[in-house]
Design goal:
By secondary structure, the chain is mainly beta. The chain has no helices and 22 strands.
Length: about 230
């Protein structure tokens, strides 16, 4: 018979030896380390030593902060993402975990993290030029209200997996500039560093994702795009 818990932890059967404070998932009904893109159940409260061991997992929806094992050094205040073998790091591309409230010195160090949702999800209308920040990732940007060309410059500190969405809502050029840090992959080629891509028909849209090397890859996108000469 199914039941429920009203506590921050729940017990599960382990599929093998697993370390405390690592992210876990259910695999074939038993606990295993979470992968890079797995949100997971939560983190193990104690070590397990063999298949069949029973251990408590601190669930993702538990109140308060949570302990995680780092894959590499992480600074206080850094965004934390999923890494291999149930660990976490500050490199984008994996499942978003939260914000580091303590530092990790390196691989195997334990840090405190405040779990929260991935930033973004808002829409901003730009009637003039603007430089976007990394905190605006996963958000939509338009040129609604613009009476002339608008240039939006992408953040120079983006990490792999950061994504921005651009939509033309006025019949003016909406220019998206990668900045000096890199270039945009679009129209079948990597374009020149610091050269913007523009479009100007209402409902045309462009999605750009950071590759972690300073560059951005386009897609999915709809419209006719012009690259700065």
């Amino acid at each position: 018979m199914s039941g429920h818990v009203e506590t921050p932890t729940r017990t599960f059967t382990a599929g093998g030896a697993l370390a405390a404070d690592r992210r876990v998932v259910l695999s074939s009904g038993v606990l295993a380390y979470a992968g890079i893109n797995d949100v997971g159940l939560g983190t193990l409260e104690v070590d397990t030593f063999a298949s069949g061991d029973v251990a408590a997992v601190r669930l993702n929806n538990a109140q308060g902060t949570q302990r995680f094992v780092a894959l590499a050094a992480i600074s206080i205040g850094a965004d934390v993402y999923g890494a291999a073998n149930g660990k976490v790091n500050d490199v984008g591309g994996g499942a978003y975990i939260g914000v580091a409230l303590s530092a990790a010195s390196g691989d195997g160090a334990v840090l405190e993290v405040l779990r929260q949702n991935e930033p973004g999800g808002n829409i901003t209308h730009h009637a003039g030029d603007a430089t976007l920040t990394r905190s605006q990732r996963n958000s939509v940007h338009t040129n609604l209200g613009a009476g002339a060309a608008v240039t939006l410059t992408l953040p120079q500190d983006a990490v792999a997996g950061d994504r921005f969405y651009f939509n033309a809502m006025a019949a003016q050029e909406l220019r998206v500039d990668p900045g000096a840090a890199g270039a945009i992959y679009i129209s079948g080629a990597k374009q020149t560093d610091n050269k913007y891509v523009s479009f100007d028909d209402e409902a045309e849209h462009l999605t750009l994702t950071a590759d972690g090397n300073g560059d951005w890859v386009a897609g999915p996108s709809t419209g006719t795009f012009t690259v700065e000469g």
